[in-house]
Design goal:
alpha/beta, Rossmann fold, 2 domains, eight-stranded mixed sheet, five-stranded parallel sheet, 16 helices, globular, binds adenosine-5'-triphosphate, binds magnesium ion
Length: 390
């Protein structure tokens, strides 16, 4: 797979130097431009690169505003800032603007190598792409109320927005309410209805059973009342998920904490388990127990990803403490945003739609971007022709 990389240099002299000095690694298609933050949107739109290296020795507020606007308009590309100022403050501002990382100036062959490493990592995370089987991500709270449903539903929304076909399956059979985080509309059928027909599952049945929330985003809802749950067996859950894999790019499972056979089957067949924790002692205790259960079930470290929700740096329980207690590394931290999250849940609307600039929305966009990098277009872009490429 060719990697498309766009470099935005500060001056024509720098562009010439880059064209002269850079060796082009195999399998890469590199284009070089002169410009700044203002050039980013046009490059993202016209070239659809996998990675942009944006050279801004001293970025200021207006640069970050332009980057923010560009990364919100066009998602999917990984933007790396090359700057003389790699302070924590700049890094934070950059990340809030949708930048993946800040690399130290000057722009060099080494910078390019780092960019390619990032891309390889992102692709390894999505190795299923291309074989047409959807990825299954199972969300489970280490303790009730840690935010698993909120994160599952809102990440599903952002993935769908970036053009991926996403199915959210609510397997919280007793108290499932995932659909209400996204819409107030009612579903035509539930997981129980699908499970009852496990013998005759096909795409048409799935299509007619899901609640269509918006383009690319459907939900298979949990039942309103916990009736006939015995129909939802480990086998029927596996059959529904396997069918969904053939129809969707991402299948997001919202799970309850009961380790009953359907839940364990869902965890078994998932490609990734996202264990959501928070920085509290009870959550830490339950996270430790859950990590032990996962270990007993034979799930490797690659499969289980731990996410700290409502992360606060000032908390007495630090990320290292959570790691030490569980033996798992923290894959991601999502900040707290009480008002915005409450408003989104109470409106039944995804937070990134209501408040796209909220830090939680930014964190979800970053997450989705890492899971779903832009697909590469084969044809040469007009920009490559213009600049001659490398
Ligand atoms: N990042 C966040 N910032 C602030 N509040 C949050 C955040 N994430 C979740 N919450 C709050 O936590 C509450 C519980 O979230 P959610 O329903 O997703 O939890 P859960 O882990 O699915 O719990 P359950 O055990 O009920 O399934 C939400 O009502 C929301 O107000
Ligand atoms: Mg939940």
């Amino acid at each position: 797979m060719t990697s498309k990389i766009s470099l935005i240099c500060v001056s024509p002299e720098q562009r010439e130097q880059v064209v002269r000095d850079f060796a082009r690694p195999q399998g890469t298609d590199i284009t070089v431009h002169v410009g700044g933050a203002r050039t980013l949107l046009a490059v993202l739109q016209k070239e659809q690169p996998n990675v942009v290296l944006l050279d801004l020795p001293e970025p200021d507020d207006s640069d970050f505003e332009l980057i923010d606007a560009a990364t919100q308009r066009v998602t999917g590309a990984m933007v790396l800032l090359v700057s003389r100022d790699a302070s924590m403050n700049t890094l934070k501002r950059a990340m809030r603007a949708g930048v993946r990382d800040v690399l130290s100036a000057p722009l060099s062959g080494e910078t390019l190598k780092v960019a390619l490493d990032y891309l390889r990592e992102a692709r390894a995370n999505t190795s299923r792409f291309g074989d047409s089987a959807g990825e299954v991500h199972a969300f489970i709270p280490a303790k009730g109320g840690c935010g698993a449903t909120f994160l599952a539903t809102n990440l599903a929304y952002v993935l769908a927005k970036s053009g991926r076909r996403v199915l959210l399956i609510d397997l919280n059979l007793y108290f499932g309410d995932a659909a209400t985080y996204l819409t107030d509309r009612k579903a035509p059928a539930t997981v129980v209805d699908m499970a009852r027909q496990a013998q005759r599952l096909d795409s048409a049945l799935l299509e007619s059973s899901v609640l269509k929330v918006r383009e690319n985003l459907n939900v298979l809802v949990a039942p309103d009342m916990p009736y006939q749950l015995e129909q939802v067996t480990a086998e029927s859950v596996a059959a529904i998920i396997e069918l969904a894999r053939t129809e969707y790019d991402f299948i997001v499972l919202d799970l309850g904490r009961a380790m009953d056979p359907p839940t364990v089957k869902a965890l078994d067949v998932a490609d990734r388990i996202v264990m959501v924790v928070e920085q509290s002692l009870p959550a830490l205790k339950d996270a430790r127990r859950m990590a032990q259960v996962f270990d007993g079930l034979g799930y490797g470290r690659d499969k289980v990803r731990m996410v700290i929700n409502c992360f606060a740096k000032s908390s007495l329980i630090r990320a290292e403490d959570v790691e030490k207690a569980t033996g798992l590394s923290v894959a991601r931290q999502i900040p707290a945003s009480d008002e915005a999250v409450r408003a989104a849940i109470n409106h039944g609307d995804p937070l990134p739609r209501l408040t796209p600039k909220d830090p939680v929305a930014k964190a979800l966009q970053q997450w989705a971007q890492e899971l779903s990098p832009m697909t590469v277009k084969a044809e040469k872009s007009w920009f490559a022709t213009l600049t001659g490429g490398l």
